Amino acid sequence: VTAFWGAPDALEDHAERAVECSQQIRAQIKALNKKWVLDGVPDVAIRIGINTGEVFCGNVGSAQKLKFGILGDEVSFASRLQNLNKRWNTHAVCSAATFQHVQASYVGRPLETVIVKGRESTLVHEIICRVGEETSQQKYLQKTFTEIFQLYKSRQFNAVLDLCLQVDARLVKPDPAAAIMAQNARHLLQNPPASDWNGGSLTAEKYG
Predict the structure, then answer these.
(1) Which pTM was predicted?
(2) By C-alpha distance, which of 81, 69, 88 is closest to 119?
(3) Maximum distance among all alpha carbons in the chain?
(4) What is the pLDDT along the chain (208 residues), one digit of tens a residue?
(5) Could you give the residue ranges of the DSSP H alpha helices within 11-135?
(6) CA-based angle 49:203:25, to the nearest 5?
């Protein structure tokens, strides 16, 4: 499903509307899963990728069949972001272009710097919740994981491992993203990155 804001009518808060929509979807899916489990239906998981940028918007097709939609590199990148949730076991992530519009209203944490061929690298954030609605554990996770990310970018991989262990011990439920970051740090300790490495990972194709 592709949804977009800011066309055909311009909206100043298009990014915030998109992020708010993602949070409402997550809340509804969570409520439905509680109902469905009583009927023996497996949990339904969703993955959402949000990006902000210029796109081609209008009627697409031919005289026989038209649809109003959007096309362009920024649309494709949103799809790549959606698939990044598989890597991090998250539900909703956004690009730096989106997060700069919503960081005053939503709590997020940096996950990784993504490098896509033909584009500038971008920092991907997980959207956690609205500002003021976070639990004490979410506050701790956002603060600590941001520190982990900065240590990772500065190649302090042993420090990354130490903090990831602290996160695992502190949280009621293990954080999959912290486990993945620890795995990445162990790999880079054994296989040091190149001198021009900026903490990024190459994402040349869409994840399946």
Answers:
(1) 0.88
(2) 81
(3) 61
(4) 899 998 888 889 999 999 999 999 999 999 999 999 888 988 888 999 999 999 999 888 888 888 888 999 999 999 999 999 999 999 999 999 999 999 999 999 999 999 887 778 889 999 999 999 999 999 999 999 999 999 999 999 999 999 999 998 898 888 999 999 999 999 999 999 888 888 877 554 443 3
(5) 14-38, 73-88, 96-102
(6) 10
